[in-house]
Amino acid sequence: MRLDIRVNEKKSVVNSSASVVDDCISLLQQQNLKILIIGNSHAACLPHSIAESSGDRIRIVSVQKPEYSHFFKRGVPTQSLRDYYHPTHVFSILGGNRHYDVGLIEHPQKIQVLVGGEDEFLAEGRELVTNAVIRDVLLEAAHDPLAMMRNIRAFYSCTVTHVMPPPPIALEDISNMLDRALRSMGEFTTAPVWHRLRCYRIYCSVLSDFCAKEGFLSLDPPDDAASDEGFLKTEYYGRNATHANDKYGLLLFQKILQDVIMSSDVSTA
Within 10 A of 22 (CB to CB), how many other CB atoms are there? Predict the structure, then answer.
């Protein structure tokens, strides 16, 4: 499947078609745009083959892969990264799973995060924890990826956009979908879906505030990938409970390209 992006009167239309890549690359070439995507595990779902066939218009750096390890030293970009590529737009897909530090496995003392408003309810047998406490925990958990993002932002003079992580899945029992390392921990209980969703939303708020403070743009997950309740739709479930699949990656790739073309179109208007 390929991606078709056409710009008409400041509006871009994304369609699935056989001519997608050619249309997309043509627009990137016409405006001399180059996209660098820097990510870790959540970048794995992106269509790397499309990037590789883009005529050097799109490159994806997966920081966990050994072949890219020399691009960063203790989270700081090196001259090797600058020599590797000269982008006009940079996207960060880093630190996407940090909300699961408190949202995936039940703590021995079960908790409930208070969010207030119409979505509030009181679950029996749970210790009440404020939104602010969870924000502080997640901010600390995300220290390393946020520091790396800050270093990337300082490294490039072009636009840097952070991509929000995919929503959690809605299955109650996800024990068989966890990574092998988690399953080897012994007996545990996975947190209920409503707790996962609350922690996810708080984490996205943490990331959004960080982006606003540090001079990043931010990009939300594709609208079509989420259910009305805010969970990841079943067709986009990935290889495990905390990642999305290639179909989601294509949707996200479409949105990234749409964002770049639209922002460049507006800036040159």
Answer: 12
